[in-house]
């Protein structure tokens, strides 16, 4: 029995190449093929507001009260999402949630948690499951760093940094699978291949320090981020078929508390040494997350995307 949907798709593509058309907007309706619902529908799904829509999505951003996590949470709230933020400082979480909700049109909610601890991760997940039937987007952003000369690098700063930056990304993804799967299946992914909805998205915040050797001695940090990038590739293969994409943003320098010392002492070097002459801005990282979380990014899986102005590619000689 021939697959009529497949044949219709192939005919449509051949039609486009024969007529030199760039889009399907002028095509007539092809019956029974879920991707082709007529010119109006095709135009609608290509419009920015539909293609990049994250309105109503439920999002968890770890470390969302400040720094890069705050930038990401702000972007989602500004586009109508319901965002949860989680980190150790309860007061900072509550204050950020109130400020972002006041900005709207989405909302922001605090569930403070120390993600170094397995039981705290479990408590966060249980609380989220109590409040929501599905999670559309998980942004694993919480992170820490440590720097010391190789002779003095403390053993405990390997355990702490690798646990928070790498292991807990796995822990949260693992424990949130039922909620992520519920979101992916709900909005139609692998089983329903029409153009509406999309997979759930796991977005890990990596670093260019995990791509090339850093100038500073942050051994456990760079190793944790390199591991995180590869964990994302591995998980993309396991979770793609379950309706969840997994991608990593390898961030370059952003002016946050983590980078306060570097920006205080080397701002000129950081900015002038970048091909784009600047550090990262909130829209850079929020925009990438919204892309990955929306239908526009729903075919991106297992990618490591540099959000760094291209600085990690530059030769030092
Ligand atoms: N800034 C950069 O240039 C840059 C570059 C590449 C990658 N990154 C990555 O971006 C992410 C965010 O860093 P940032 O630059 O925004 O620095 P930051 O301002 O220091 O933010 C770190 C975040 O992690 C949270 N956090 C730390 N320990 C935690 C714990 N035990 N449990 C839960 N949350 C914890 C912090 O909140 P609490 O203190 O309240 O727990 C804070 O929200 C990190 O993964 C970092 O590696 C940053």
From TrEMBL:
Protein name per its UniProtKB record: Uu.00g103170.m01.CDS01
Transmembrane segment boundaries: none
Limits of the Ketoreductase domain: 57-285
Family to which the UniProt record says this protein belongs: Belongs to the short-chain dehydrogenases/reductases (SDR) family.
InterPro entries: KR_dom, NAD(P)-bd_dom_sf, Sc_DH/Rdtase_CS, SDR_fam, Sec_Metab_Biosynth_SDR
Keyword Transmembrane helix carried by entry: no
Top-level taxon of origin: Eukaryota
Coiled-coil region list: none
One Pfam family from the record: adh_short_C2
């Amino acid at each position: 029995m021939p697959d009529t949907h497949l044949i219709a798709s192939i005919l449509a593509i051949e039609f486009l190449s024969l007529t030199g058309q760039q889009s399907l907007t002028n095509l007539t309706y092809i019956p029974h093929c879920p991707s082709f619902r007529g010119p109006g529908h095709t135009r609608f799904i290509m419009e920015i507001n539909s293609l990049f829509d994250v309105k109503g999505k439920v999002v968890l951003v770890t470390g969302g009260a400040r720094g890069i996590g705050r930038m990401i949470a702000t972007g989602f709230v500004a586009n109508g999402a319901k965002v949860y933020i989680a980190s150790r400082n309860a007061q900072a979480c509550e204050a950020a949630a109130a400020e972002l909700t006041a900005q709207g049109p989405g909302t922001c909610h605090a569930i403070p948690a120390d993600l170094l601890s397995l039981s705290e991760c479990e408590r966060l997940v249980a609380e989220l499951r109590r409040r929501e039937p599905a999670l559309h987007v998980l942004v694993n952003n919480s992170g820490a760093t440590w720097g010391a000369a190789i002779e003095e690098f403390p053993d405990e700063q390997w355990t702490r940094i690798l646990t928070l930056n790498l292991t807990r990304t796995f822990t949260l993804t693992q424990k949130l699978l039922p909620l992520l799967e519920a979101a992916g299946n709900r909005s139609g992914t692998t089983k329903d291949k029409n153009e509406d909805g999309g997979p759930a998205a796991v977005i890990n915040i990596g670093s260019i320090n995990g791509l090339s050797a850093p100038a500073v001695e942050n051994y456990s940090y760079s190793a944790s981020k390199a591991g995180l990038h590869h964990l994302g590739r591995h998980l993309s293969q396991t979770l793609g078929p379950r309706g969840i994409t997994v991608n990593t943003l390898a961030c370059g320098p952003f002016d946050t508390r983590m980078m306060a010392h570097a920006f205080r002492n080397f701002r000129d070097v950081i900015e002038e040494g970048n091909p784009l002459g600047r550090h990262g801005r909130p829209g850079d990282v929020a925009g990438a997350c919204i892309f990955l979380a929306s239908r526009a990014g729903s075919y991106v899986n297992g990618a490591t995307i540099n959000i760094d102005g291209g600085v990690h590619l530059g030769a030092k000689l």
